[in-house]
Structure formats: structure tokens, C-alpha cells
């Protein structure tokens, strides 16, 4: 969730530092006070393009900083890790600097970042509802993702995308192969010949270094036998040998130890040397027993080495690389359809298409079931949001050709009155209607949606009275599971906030300055009373404001 925001020299804000809490935070203030500044600042931090007019008049640059808590957002942590942009555990720092010429720089956790990275990360952090320019609900991919999330089919959708890409990659290879049939067949023949040549060797993974070691041993067997026997003679078998000399020295020193105990330390060392010498003699005898001259085996090993070396030289490879290269050729031939050539590749394309269509059909079924349930749930919310004459629908539009996202496009539709035909949401709904439909969707899908912070702007346009109170309750209900920020003109909505922020505007010699402050209980009463009563605030108005806060 959004933890804090710091602005400096942004539009009409000289400097602003705000800490946000969980739940529903409401922003209120006089018309023209600059309530949209918060949304504009967050938009820039989440990848929107900057303009020179965003720098406060007379300042050289504007600085925007935001801290998000991401400890409970594994999808964000995974994205940061994939982009090598990790920060302190559980915290995410976004920074944007814009100079007076409109040039900007951005950082994620202190590392320079692109606008595309900010935008991709922003889609995991914040969803802004209200103005069409910010409305993610108008995007086809967002509508599809919302339905897939509600259907708990996001993983299935990901698998469908992977199956589609695999199918298309094979189909592309088949098309290339058909267009270049001679080259394709020549490549298959070449691969098969190479595989046959290397496979005939039956060379094991570690056989080459083992052959080299065995050849060296067999080739020098006579020298090894002579050297080992000479060593045994010196150490143990000769008339004068190390073992007997060591025993003699030990005997002499043992007699002298009676006169000076200081010799015992040397005797202990010699006892250790005697034990090690005995072990060495035993190991050398064991090695000698296995040594023999074997000209036949030497010739066999040399023939094997020669065969491997000639094959490796033929393909200009080091001998030890032949087993891995054989696997690579076999894999490539398999991708081209194996020994079946074009027919084999065609079969693989058909298998990939069948696998895609099987999973895509499962996704279509999940979407169809979830669409009906979501429609009913959202339509049940609309009357309370002053949209009782509207009808919401989710339509699955079959595609002429399959796509990476499945066999159909998902389109959110609405009819403004019972006799009107259903039309795409973007073409029918006004800003206020769109915000309220979004609110209904977010309330219904809050248990499965992934974005932790929601911002609603103009959610209360065209409503009042009982409907405004219901909208406030819905927002507060949504705030129980998500962080919600709402810009509102309605006291009924403002009273439902867990946190209340007031936007004000003043003038000084430097120009107009906007500020945002967090209100305490008494200040909230005064602000809600202002929203209720206008310029003149009576005691009755204050009591009404107190009552609204108490009920909320």
C-alpha cells in the first residue's frame, strides 16, 4: 500500500509530506483547491509523461517521492527481483525529478529506471478510477484480467499464453520450412548424418578423459612397474631399507630415554612416521599387484582414442564436446519433426495447436461461468448507486482467429436504460457513471483482485442524499480489504473515511500555494459541517456533522 508521499515545487505545491494509513482515506476541499494534485503526482510516479508546466512557477525543478509497503505483495517483489531493482525488505521507493524544461528522470529503489518500468510496476501498485484518461477499466486487457481474476483462472490464462506462443513458434518454423523446402530437407539430412556418425561411437559423457588416463597408464606400464618395485626395495624389501633403519633408530633412542625423558617427544614422532611408512608400503604393494603389461588392452584403447579423435576432427570439435553436441543435434532434429521431415513438423504443430485449444476451451468455460456470476453481483449493486435503470453485462466475443489470451475477447458492456442496447462501457458511461460501475466491480471483486491501492475521483458526480451515503459505505467496505483514496465533494462520503485529508489553497507574494493536511476529529467535524452548510456554519450543522461521523 501507499505509505507516504513527498512533493516539492509541484504545480502549486511548495512542499508537502503526507503519511497514509490503511482503509479509506478521503480528500475534500473547496472547488479549485487542487484536490487532483495528489492523483497527478501519483500518476507521474507511476509512469505518466511529464510536462514543463508541472514545475511550480519560479522553481528550477519538481521532486516527487513515494514509499510503498510491499511486504505482502509477492507479485511486486517478484517483478523487482526480475528487474534487479530490489530495495529494503518490505519497502519500495519511487522518485521522479522534472526540470523546468520538462525533462525528467526516475528512480526505483535508488536505481535509475525508465518510464516503461514505472508504468509496469505501477499497474501492480495502484489503480486509478475516475477520469477516462486514468481509467484502467476501459482497457481490453484490464477487463479480461479482471474477469480472469474473479474466475480464479489467472494461472490458466498464463498457461494458455505459453501454449499459444509455443504453437505459433512451431507454426512459424513450418511455414519457413515449406517456403524453403530444399533447405529444410537438406538441414534434416545433415543433422541425421551428423547424429549417425557420432552416435556410432557410443561415447559416454565422461569416457574421453577416462580413456586418456587409462592410455597414459598402459603406455607407461613398464616404467610404473620398475619404479614401484624400486620403491618397495628401498622402503621394505631390500637388505638395507627404510623400515629396518627406522626400527633401529627407535630402539636406540628408547634405551636413551631412561637417561633423559626429553627424548620421548622424538620417539612419539617416530612412532607416527613408522605407522605412516607402513601404510605407504601397504598401498604401494596393493598398487603393484594391479600393475601388468597389457599390450592388447593398450592397442584397444589407442584404437578407441583414434576413432573418437577422428570423429571430433571431422566436426571441428574437441573430443569431450561430442556427447553434448550429439544431444543438441538430436534436439534440433526433433524440433524439425524428427525423421519424419515436414510431415513430422506438421504433426508437432498440430499437437501444439490441440494442446492450446484444449486449455483455451477450459479458460473459455471458466470465463463464461464467472461472467454470469459477476454480472449478477454487479447489477445487484447498481440500484443503490443511482444506476438502477442501467444494466451491466460481460460479453465474450468469439475471435475469428485464436489469440494469446484465448478464443474470445472480454468486453464490459452497459445499457443506460432498460430498452437501450448493450454497448461497450467506454462508449456509453459518463465519468461519474464509470466511477460508480468501477466501484461496484471493485467491491464485488475485492477478495480476488491483486492491486492493493485504489483511487476514486469524481465517484460522487450526479448523486446525493441516500445514494451518497451508500457510496460512502461501499467505499468504506472496500477499505476493509484494500487501501482506498477518494476525492469527494459529498459530506456523506467524507464521513465514512478512516482518514480525512483536507486540501486548501492560499495566496502569498510568491503566488498561489496548495496544501494538504490530515484532520483530527474536531477538524473533521468542522470540514464536514462546511460541506453541509457552505459559508455559514450553524450549531445545528455541526451537530449534523457529528451525527454523520458517529453513524459512519
Q: Which helices and strands appear, and what pairs or packs with what?
A:
Elements: E1 2-10, E2 13-19, E3 24-29, H1 37-45, E4 61-69, H2 74-82, E5 91-99, E6 104-108, E7 111-113, H3 115-125, E8 126-129, H4 140-150, H5 154-179, H6 181-199, H7 207-219, H8 221-237, H9 242-256, H10 264-290, H11 295-314, H12 322-335, H13 341-381, E9 391-403, E10 406-415, E11 423-424, H14 425-428, H15 431-445, E12 453-457, H16 465-479, E13 483-487, H17 491-494, E14 499-508, E15 511-518, H18 521-533, H19 539-551
Parallel strand pairs: 3-13, 3-14, 8-12, 12-13
Antiparallel strand pairs: 1-2, 1-4, 4-5, 5-6, 6-7, 9-10, 10-11, 14-15
How does this model look, in words?
The chain has 552 residues and is of the alpha/beta class. 54% of the residues lie in helices and 19% in strands. The chain contains 19 helices and 15 strands. The strands form 3 sheets. It has a 6-stranded antiparallel sheet, covered by helices on one side. Strand 1 (2-10) and strand 2 form a beta hairpin. Helix 5 (154-179) runs antiparallel to helix 13 (341-381). The longest helix has 41 residues, at 341-381. The chain is elongated and about 125 Å long. The two termini are 23 Å apart.
Amino acid at each position: 500500500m501507499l505509505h507516504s508521499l513527498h512533493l516539492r515545487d509541484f504545480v502549486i505545491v511548495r512542499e508537502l509530506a503526507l503519511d497514509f494509513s490503511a482503509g479509506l482515506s478521503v480528500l475534500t476541499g473547496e472547488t479549485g483547491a487542487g484536490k487532483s494534485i495528489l492523483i497527478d503526482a501519483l500518476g507521474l510516479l507511476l509512469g505518466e509523461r511529464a510536462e514543463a508546466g508541472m514545475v511550480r512557477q519560479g522553481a528550477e525543478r519538481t521532486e516527487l517521492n513515494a514509499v510503498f509497503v510491499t511486504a505482502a505483495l509477492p507479485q511486486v517483489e517478484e517483478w523487482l527481483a526480475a528487474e534487479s531493482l530490489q530495495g529494503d525488505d518490505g519497502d519500495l521507493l519511487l522518485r521522479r525529478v522534472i526540470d523546468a524544461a520538462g525533462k525528467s528522470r526516475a528512480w526505483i529503489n535508488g536505481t535509475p529506471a525508465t518510464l516503461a518500468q514505472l508504468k509496469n510496476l505501477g499497474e501492480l501498485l495502484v489503480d486509478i478510477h475516475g477520469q477516462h484518461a486514468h481509467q484502467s477499466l476501459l482497457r481490453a486487457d484490464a477487463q479480461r484480467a479482471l474477469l480472469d481474476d474473479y474466475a480464479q483462472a489467472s494461472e490458466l490464462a498464463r498457461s494458455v499464453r505459453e501454449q499459444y506462443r509455443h504453437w505459433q513458434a512451431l507454426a512459424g518454423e513450418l511455414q519457413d520450412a515449406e517456403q524453403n523446402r530444399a533447405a529444410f530437407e537438406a538441414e534434416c539430412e545433415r543433422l541425421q548424418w551428423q547424429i549417425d556418425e557420432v552416435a556410432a561411437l557410443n561415447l559416454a559423457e565422461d569416457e574421453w578423459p577416462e580413456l586418456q588416463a587409462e592410455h597414459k597408464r598402459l603406455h607407461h606400464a613398464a616404467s610404473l612397474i620398475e619404479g614401484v618395485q624400486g620403491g618397495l626395495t628401498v622402503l621394505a624389501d631390500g637388505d638395507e631399507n627404510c623400515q629396518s633403519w627406522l626400527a633401529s633408530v627407535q630402539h636406540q633412542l628408547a634405551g636413551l630415554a631412561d637417561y633423559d625423558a626429553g627424548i620421548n617427544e622424538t620417539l612419539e614422532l617416530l612412532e607416527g612416521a613408522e605407522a605412516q611408512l607402513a601404510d605407504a608400503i601397504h598401498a604401494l604393494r596393493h598398487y603393484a599387484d594391479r600393475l601388468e603389461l597389457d599390450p592388447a588392452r593398450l592397442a584397444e584403447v589407442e584404437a578407441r582414442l583414434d576413432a573418437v579423435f577422428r570423429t571430433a576432427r571431422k566436426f571441428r570439435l574437441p573430443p569431450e564436446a561430442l556427447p553434448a553436441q550429439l544431444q543438441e543435434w538430436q534436439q534440433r532434429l526433433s524440433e524439425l519433426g524428427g525423421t519424419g521431415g515436414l510431415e513430422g513438423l506438421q504433426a508437432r504443430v498440430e499437437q501444439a495447436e490441440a494442446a492450446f485449444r484444449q486449455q483455451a476451451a477450459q479458460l473459455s468455460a471458466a470465463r463464461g461461468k464467472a461472467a454470469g456470476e459477476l454480472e449478477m453481483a454487479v447489477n445487484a449493486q447498481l440500484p443503490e448507486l443511482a444506476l438502477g435503470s442501467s444494466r451491466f453485462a460481460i460479453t465474450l466475443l468469439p475471435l475469428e482467429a485464436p489469440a494469446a489470451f484465448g478464443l474470445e475477447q472480454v468486453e464490459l458492456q452497459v445499457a443506460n436504460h432498460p430498452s437501450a442496447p448493450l454497448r461497450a462501457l467506454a462508449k456509453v458511461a459518463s465519468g461519474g457513471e464509470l466511477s460508480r460501475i468501477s466501484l461496484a466491480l471493485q467491491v464485488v471483486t475485492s477478495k480476488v483482485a491483486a492491486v492493493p491501492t485504489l483511487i476514486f475521483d469524481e465517484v460522487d458526480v450526479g448523486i446525493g442524499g441516500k445514494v451518497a451515503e451508500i457510496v460512502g459505505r461501499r467505499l468504506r467496505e472496500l477499505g476493509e480489504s484494500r487501501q482506498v483514496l477518494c476525492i469527494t465533494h459529498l459530506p456523506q462520503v467524507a464521513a465514512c473515511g478512516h482518514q480525512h485529508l483536507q486540501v486548501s489553497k492560499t495566496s502569498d507574494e510568491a503566488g498561489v500555494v496548495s496544501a494538504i493536511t490530515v484532520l483530527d476529529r474536531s477538524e473533521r467535524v468542522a470540514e464536514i459541517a462546511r460541506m453541509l452548510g457552505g459559508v455559514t456554519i450553524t450549531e445545528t450543522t455541526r451537530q449534523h456533522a457529528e451525527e454523520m461521523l458517529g453513524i459512519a
